[in-house]
Amino acid sequence: MITQHGIGKIIRMGQLIDAESQHTVIVAIDHGLGGAVPGIDNLEPTLEKIIAGKPDAIIMSMGVAKRFQHLFSGRGKPSIIITVDRQLGATLPGKASRGEAYRLIADVEDALLIGASAVKMVMIYGREDVAVHADNVQAVTEVARQCDQYKVPFLLEPVLWGNLATEADRNNPEILKHICRMGFEWGADILKINYTGDITTFREVVETCPIPIVILGGSKMETEQDVLATVAGAMEAGAIGVAFGRNVFQHSHPIGMIRALRQVVHEGAPVEEALADWSR
Questions:
Q1: 2-276, which class in CATH?
Q2: Residue 238: exposure state from Cβ atoms within 10 A (0-12, 13-18, ≥19)
Q3: How far is CA 198 from CA 134, 222, 231, 273, in A?
Q4: Domain spans of the chain?
Q5: How far apart are CA 31 and CA 47, in angstroms?
Q6: Which of 55, 97, 136, 147 could bridge across to 89 with cysteines, CB 3.0–4.6 Å?
């Protein structure tokens, strides 16, 4: 393993994944790259609550990591994962998309200089313009190369955001198998993908993917039961954890939500037990 990944990458992977459970609870707050999203519009107090919940890592922008570095210094704090890219559509926030543009906004060395343990980016499928998709693939392979050079874990999020992708496509296990395989082939160390909603079909996705998978949260779910049942199903199917955004930072009690996620992910607690312990 050392000859394949290098000691540095192994150590940094250990900062993301719990040594005992070999699982991870990641919170994503990089949504602010698209504007002032409800839940993180007043960022610092929400970030303090998220950190108090003790996730294993937090996905954020370079700007957040620089401004709030004081919250991440010291033992026992979550690891930092830096988002290094951005999909660009609307030229005015809140307005309709005017295209499929995509750009890298940071490089791996930038992330390392502010103390990151990993970097994250997306690989977007369903584009109308194959050249735009090709540019995205080229960016993925370049970041993968930098991650190998600097021995930094690479968290890749293959997503079906393009206009040609349907809602059914996003939960289609056959499509997920293909995009996971391509993510592995192009150099990812961990994948962040959609859960199919079914343990059997998601297990097929996990078993055909040579690298670990965490599930994304997507839109905010209606109840805590829905959130934890989704997580429990994904974990039973073989996922190593979660990377949730809105289902944490838009919750009225983010500390409790992270605590419940940790119980299900790290301890294998039943959903009912995690719910019963909600307010502790």
A1: alpha beta
A2: middle
A3: 31, 18, 11, 22
A4: 2-276
A5: 13
A6: 97
